[in-house]
C-alpha cells in the first residue's frame, strides 16, 4: 500500500526502533554474495548511522519524490521499474542493512514495491579494525586511495598484466609497479591501508591483490557520511590508529607525505607520475626514510 510522507516518516521511526540493539551488520559468504540479487523491501533495514535516519536531518523528500515518479511512470504502463541495485550488508539475525541507496529504498516503500535489486558487499567493521590493530606488530603504515592511485583504466599504458576473472569482470587494472611496491613495504615493516569512497566489497579487493601475491591490511570503502560508523565510533577508531602508528605515509600520484604520530608536522617528497618508474621512485624514497629512522 502506498504511503504519503508523514506515513513514511512514522514507518521509518518504527523500523529503526524495532531494529535497535537487535540487527547488526555481519559479513556474508562468497556464495551468498553471488546468488542474492534482490530482497524484500521489508527485509532491508536502514542504516541508523546514516543521516537519512537522523530526526533533525531526515530524508530528502525531493530526492525521494524523483525516484517515486520514475517508479510510478514505469508501473503505469505495466513495465517493471528499473532501479539501480541497493548496496547492502547482511545483518544478523536476518535481512540486510543499507550501505547506499536509502532514498531509492524509501521511494520503493512509499510506492509499494515488494522487492528491490541489491548488491551484497562485505566491509571492514569496527571489530575488524580493532582486531587488525591488535594483531599487527608494526608501528608504520602506508595509505593510498584505490581509485586515484592504485587502479587504472584497462587502456592505460602502465598497468600490470591482468590476472584472474575478478580483475577482468571489474574492468579494474592495477597500476604498474604496485605489487612490487607493496611487497617492499610489507618486508620493511609497513601495514598497508587502502581507501575508496566507492562501495567495493573487501573480499573482492583482497582477491584482486592476492592474485599478484600481495597482501593489504586495512580496506576502508564507502567511507564518509554514508559509512557504517557514527561520529563517536569514527573518533574512537581514529584515536586507536593514531596511537598505534608512529609513522603514517600517504602516497599520492605525484608525491608522498610523511607524518609522525599525532604531530601536525609533515614531510613531503615529489615523485614522477604516469611513468613506468613510479614505483621505483617511491621505493627509493622509502629507503631514504628507513635509513634515516635507523640512524
TrEMBL record:
SUPFAM superfamilies found in the cross-reference section: HAD-like, ParB/Sulfiredoxin
Residues spanning the membrane: none
Gene3D superfamilies: Conserved hypothetical protein from pyrococcus furiosus pfu- 392566-001, ParB domain (3.90.1530.10)
Ranges of residues in domain ParB-like N-terminal: 82-129
Domain of life: Bacteria
Protein name: ParB-like N-terminal domain-containing protein
Native species: Butyrivibrio proteoclasticus (strain ATCC 51982 / DSM 14932 / B316) (Clostridium proteoclasticum)
